[in-house]
Amino acid sequence: MAHFIPHNLRIILKQKTIYSCQQCGMQSPKWLGKCSDCGQWNSLVEETVTVAKKGGRTVPLRSESSPVRLSEVSATDEDRLHCGIAEFDRVLGGGVVPGSFTLIGGDPGIGKSTLLLQAAGSWARIGPVLYATAEESTRQVKLRAGRLDVVAEDLYLLAETSLEGILERVKELKPAFLVIDSIQTVFTAALESAPGSVSQVRECAGRLMHLAKGEDIPTFIVGHVTKDGSIAGPRMLEHMVDTVLYFEGDAGHPYRILRAVKNRFGSTNEIGVFEMKDIGLSEVPNPSELFLAERPEDAAGSVVVPSIEGTRPILVEIQALVSGTAHGNPRRTAMGIDSNRVSLLVAVLEKKVGYSLLAQDIFVNVAGGVRISEPAVDLGVVAALASSHLNRPVDERTVLFGEVGLTGEVRAVSRPEMRVNEAARLGFNCCLLPAGNLKSLDQPEGMKLIGVSSAAEALEFLFN
Fold first, then answer.
1. 431 to 25, 289, 297, 332, 461: CA distances (angstroms)
2. Hey, which of 104, 112, 133, 457 has its CA 20 to 30 A from 257?
């Protein structure tokens, strides 16, 4: 875009002090103890910006682009580039789109840099890869690459925190891929604020986005997260990029889950499952067997539920513990599942089935560190709670799925065929499912399908 400024226009550069919220990017002319937009305390930081005070008439702008009819725009599928890590490609929507701009966030030490370094080693077979590390030296990255057995002739390392220095090396090298680790430690000399501030993150990300789109270079940036797990810096950062990936995992488990929360080139329901080993991240092509590998036998409160994550069926174990409380207010703790949903199902068991649970401490956990959000696991949660309350185990070769309503009814869910087939493949021989789904299903060999219309009917079949 060309800018034409008349000779009679007078522009005066002026420095101005503002206070920016490091959580949401809100700007204030004075310091505030609490951000008026996001409500965070002590999040406003002083920054100095340069503004242009214009005198005379408005500056006219001229653009070289022109409107194009929708029918005249070519709509061909992008040729995706595969990184050799099938789980990573799955989450990206089938591979890397040329010119895409991707943000990867996650807790410290979760494996973000490890994943990108392993992917960069595979991308180097396609073309030169520039890995700009702003947090580590090239020697440190080399030591990690040796541990991960990453050997690539066209993988270039650059220890640089200056954005201008990175852009200059990109201009010289003309890489096929660019990795920035991390965006919070990169700064531009055009701003006086410190690296990691709202203005620095916004400006650096904006210039990298123009580079990715203008030069057709797939760019990956690593983002730090705050204590509540969201990407640090302005919320605008997530709006600017094409894809936002979160790397999740529990410090006590070796499993890592890569989840897309925004993807302009694919579904946001896909997940990639990895296992952290001494030699780096290893793909888990069959997560169901992994999550059920340590399931206890004949244990009350343990139920297997087939869940759908994107296009993939995954069998997970739901565990529940119901015990008498020693306090006036019983505890309700849920891990890997919405706690409000658990409270709702407890109320259904109390009111519609007749179980006395109001004076009980209740704990629900999804084994393996998985997080489940779909309502199809409701029937499994109900069965696990009832199993623990009655101290009677559910048959270890039985799976359950279905949505439970407030009146205790079991509602049909999507893609029942995939759930049943995955359970049959892993050796389960009985499945309790909504009666509405049973009508359209063919019974797999060796699998008994039981249709239920209410939670009470399901529990009567399991425990009577």
1. 50, 18, 18, 28, 11
2. 133
Position 292, amino acid: L
Domains annotated for the chain, with CATH where assigned, are 2-61 (no CATH), 79-285 (3.40.50.300), 290-463 (3.30.230.10)
pTM: 0.73
Residues 6+ apart with CB under 8 A from 117: 131, 141, 144, 145, 148, 150
Cα–Cα distance, 204 to 207 (Å, whole number): 5
Could you give the CA distance from residue 222 to residue 204 in angstroms, rounded to a whole number?
13
Query: What CA–CA distance (Å, rounded) separates 400 from 382?
Result: 10
Per-residue pLDDT tens digits for 201-256: 889 999 999 999 999 999 999 988 766 666 666 667 888 899 999 988 776 678 88
| 244-269 confidence digits (pLDDT tens) | 999 887 766 788 889 898 999 888 87
Helix (H) or strand (E) holding 358: none
Q: Which is nearest to 131 in space by CA: 83, 91, 170?
A: 170
Task: Give, in order, the Cα–Cα distances in Å from 368 to each of 255, 257, 282.
Answer: 7, 10, 16
